[in-house]
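Title: Request for sanity check on L-xylulose reductase prediction

Description:
We are preparing a figure and want to confirm that the structure record we downloaded matches what your pipeline produces today. Could someone re-run it with the sequence below and paste the raw structure tokens into this thread? We only need the token string, no images.
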Amino acid sequence: MLRSICKLPHKIAGQMAVDILSRSMSGQAPQKMEDYFKGKKFIVTGSCAGMGEKITERLVDLGSFVYAVVEKEEGAAKPLPNTKQIFCDVSNWEDTYKKMYDIGPVHGLVNNAGVAVIESFFDVTEHGWDKTLNINARALVRISQAVAKNMIDAGIKGSIVNISSTISTRAIPDHTTYCASKGAVNQITRTMAIELGKYGIRTNNVNPTVVLTRMGKIAWSDPEKSGPIMRRIPLGRFAETDDIANAVIFMLSDYSTMVNGTALVVDGGFLAG
């Protein structure tokens, strides 16, 4: 058919190609993004509070089952319906892989677990450096190795979303280790996108500005600290957990099937100026 079209005059051939494409697409009502999540399984790390808690809630509301990764059982919140809590110290290299692999195949992973040790450059400690890099970057690699292996073995073309930060690219004072760890996340994401893409597994970042979680509200309550950042945000506010969950849901869904190895910045324009 295509060879026959190519023999026709250019204008006629072009119109015929458009008509054929239009007919092939007609009658295919686009699926609502929300419908994608019904009956799917996901893993969310750092799911007991803040952004992880909100992302878990949204996935459950959309009809998904969530494996909610929590550091320890002691003091953990009661699990939501359609979730299963997985207690795991993600800084433990071997135990983390085993627990994530034993979950079995899922359709998506959100690497949300993270810590921020606030130390000025000259006050950076070995403990602060190791803890931050181990949880924010190293654990992300180990978790993703297990999850991606299960996806590949099951033939699932899934999505992995890594939570990074705007200060992975624009540094702020007293966040040496945090900035370093999130810069690492950006590069890990790009490498994963290249290596896992051939299996149909997409890997992307969501990069928020300050997010007003319960802890975020406390940490950024001082106007002297928050003011310089707020003044750089054209929308004039910090992010809410729903803002981050919206971005993650998009990246997990089949509305973003051609998005791979990139960062969805959720910052109200902070990086634009």
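Thanks, this matches our download. Strands lie at 41-45, 65-70, 83-87, 108-111, 159-163, 202-208, 263-266.
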